[in-house]
Design a protein that fits this description.
By secondary structure, the chain is α+β, with helices and mostly antiparallel strands. The chain contains six helices and ten strands. It has a single domain, classed as VC0467-like, CATH 3.40.1740. It starts with 16 loop residues before the first strand and ends in a 10-residue tail after the last helix.
């Protein structure tokens, strides 16, 4: 039996997930899941949601924030920038809704105050160093080359509650059918 990839993969919308195909030949995106934050006339901006670091927020900021959540690698572009995704229920000025109670960005000082006051926990916000970006048309080429699968409508559970190390496999498994089969492909097919 030969597995077939999707033909005519739709363009992702804000709030969708990009899942790398099992053998994507790019170490920056090996078995990654990316939350699409903006896909528009200027290109596509997203954050890898399953690559964590051992760094804490205090270690990269010039201030003490007392936040125990580990930082994540959002992608290979501008890793000296900080980005965040959250599910804070109160309105955050400038936060961009991505659907299903997920927000990207927003007023950092407001978020910092909520963290310092104990109103936001590590389970409600994730911080990312760098981002993943594509110029206009670049992601479409990669989709046509079948480098990515698109999973519509990310959920807060997928982003905030699932184990990052198992996320790639778990989402493909949830998608079912041939994606479930892809989820079981070994990282190195020579070991099969």
């Amino acid at each position: 039996m030969r597995l077939e990839y999707d033909k005519n993969i739709p363009d992702p919308k804000n709030g969708d997930l990009l899942i790398s195909e099992p053998f994507l030949n790019d170490p920056n995106f090996d078995r990654t899941v990316i939350l699409v934050c903006e896909n528009g006339a200027d290109g596509t901006f997203g954050l890898v949601i399953n690559k964590t670091t051992d760094l804490l927020l205090d270690e990269v900021m010039n201030e003490t924030i007392d936040f125990n959540g580990r930082l994540n690698i959002g992608g290979p572009v501008e890793q000296n920038t900080l980005h965040y995704i959250h599910r804070i229920s109160m309105p955050i000025e400038g936060a961009i809704p991505l659907g299903n109670g997920i927000y990207w960005s927003g007023d950092y000082e407001q978020i910092k105050a909520l963290i310092l006051n104990g109103q936001v926990s590590e389970n409600d916000i994730k911080f990312y160093l760098g981002y993943s970006g594509w110029s206009l048309g670049q992601l479409r080429v990669e989709l046509d080359q079948q480098s990515w699968f698109v999973k519509p409508n990310a959920t807060a559970r997928q982003i905030f509650d699932m184990d990052e190390d198992a996320l790639w496999k778990s989402i493909l498994h949830e998608m079912g059918g041939k994606y479930k089969v892809f989820s079981n492909y070994p990282a190195d097919p020579r070991l099969n």
